[in-house]
Amino acid sequence: MQQTDYKALYYALFGKVADATDALELGNTEKALEILIAAQQEAEAAYLNVQE
Q1: Residue 23 CA from chain centroid, whole number
Q2: For 3, which DSSP code?
Q3: Residues in Cβ contact with 39 at an 8 Å cutoff, skipping those fewer than 6 apart
Q4: Model pTM score
Q5: Burial label, 52 (beta-carbon count in 10 A; 0-12, 13-18, 19+)
Q6: Residues 7-52: pLDDT tens digits?
Q7: Is-contact 10 37, C-beta < 8 A?
Q8: What is the CB-side half-sphere exposure of residue 8 using CA atoms within 13 A?
């Protein structure tokens, strides 16, 4: 079993949150939601792949 790289997960999620914030500032709430959902799914998949 590999060790989870929480630092990498944090940076990946933080970058996506920044992208979503940018979309919100432009008034594009749908895009922001898409970004956040994708980020959540990607982080969950990365975490689960490491745990296997």
Answers
A1: 15
A2: P
A3: 12, 13, 16, 17, 20
A4: 0.84
A5: exposed
A6: 989 999 999 999 999 999 999 999 999 999 999 999 999 888 877 6
A7: no
A8: 9
Tokens found for residue 17 = 């949150």
Give residue 39's identity as a one-letter amino acid code: A
Distance CA 42, CA 10 (A): 12
Q: Which residue has the tokens 């994708």?
A: 38
Phi-psi group of 37: left, alpha or beta (phi > 0 → left; psi -120 to 50 → alpha; rest → beta): alpha
* Side-chain half-sphere exposure of 34, counting CA atoms within 13 A: 6
Tokens (6 digits) for 21: 């914030």
Do residues 39 and 13 lie in contact, with contact meaning Cβ atoms separated by under 8 Å? yes
Other beta carbons less than 10 A from residue 35's beta carbon: 21
